[in-house]
């Protein structure tokens, strides 16, 4: 392996570790999704699919992880409400309406975050790489969902 690739790999691994530390959260002992591992795999996948340089990776990946964390947080309360509703035996029409409203609000918040971060991403990546990002992000999660079945 050429020395340049070794340096890139070491720098990339260090950057992922640092970014994951900021995202680490306790899953309350629940089994299943290991969020940190998923994010690390996604970061590697995006970096490869987008053909990011070491410099681009160092700037883009932490910013993208920040977006991912904010989108997760935007849906946290709605997901909690939905779990509570699913655990109830008897549900009212009003509760269903509240859930629909909650889901729509989350969707709007996430779309706003996407627009906000796209402007940030435009300052550091070319339009070509941003299109590769959008395609790679969709591909990664499509593959993840397919593999979970």
Question: Can you give a write-up of this model?
Answer:
This protein has 5 helices and no strands. The protein has one domain. It has 149 residues and is mainly α. The protein has helices at residues 3-23, 35-50, 54-87, 93-122, 127-148.
Supply the key terms.
0% strand, 149 residues, elongated, single chain, mainly alpha
Radius of gyration: 18 Å
What percentage of residues falls in helices of 4 or more residues? over 70%
According to DSSP, the number of beta strands is 0
Low-confidence stretches: 6-31
Shape estimate = elongated
State the order of secondary-structure elements, H for helix, E for strand: HHHHH
Write down the overall mean pLDDT.
84
Strand content: under 5%
Q: Please give the alpha-carbon distance between the first and last residues.
A: 36 Å
Count of helix runs: 5
Into how many domains do the coordinates divide? 1
Task: Characterize the main sheet.
Answer: none
Category from helices, strands and their pairing: mainly alpha
